[in-house]
Amino acid sequence: MTSMIETKRLYLRQWQASDLALFAEMNADPEVMAYFPKLLTPALSNTIVNKCQKLIEEHGWGFWAVARKDGADKSDDFIGMVGLNNVHSDMPFAPAVEIAWRLHRDYWGLGYATEAALAALRYAFEVLELSEVVAFTAVINKRSQKLMQRLGMTDTQDNFSHPMLDAEHRLAEHVLYKITRQQWQALIV
What we know:
The chain is of the alpha+beta class. The chain has a single domain (5-188), classed as Gcn5-related N-acetyltransferase (GNAT) (Aminopeptidase, 3-Layer(aba) Sandwich). Helix content is 31%, strand content 25%. Strands 1-2-3-4-5 form a five-stranded antiparallel β-sheet, with helices on both faces. Strands 6, 7, 8 and 9 form a four-stranded antiparallel β-sheet that branches. A hairpin with a 3-residue loop joins strand 1 and strand 2 (10-13). Helix 1 crosses helix 2. The two termini are 24 Å apart.
């Protein structure tokens, strides 16, 4: 297993100390975090990075840092994170592996999230040999749902209330998308 994936324009790689400040900036940006319950402090943002680093070290995969290849330093042009993770055990569809993404607002609309997520799905199905991958987001997050559809994922029509949010919270109702290995293989032929 590898902890770095290369695409045409990107590296999905292990986290570096130089990623921390921009990741904290992203997590404090109300637009980036519009579909999360709260903005994150730099300390909490750093805790997430540490957890991501450890999972990649232990398993060879996880939520990778994403860096653009055309940066001055090929490994240091951080733009966000994309990757795979085991879903929390209290999710109604657990156990499952999810795909997720979060990019700095300056890199939205350029196809980076799609490119990185397709590489992560390829890793999930060709290296990890998973039978399916899920994705979920708040019902009101149409941008992420469009990306899920671009990835070939389908809406399970099995909405759920996120177990970590109060049922009355504006983000509580979530959609669940998935793609099977067979669906993925049909797309790449």
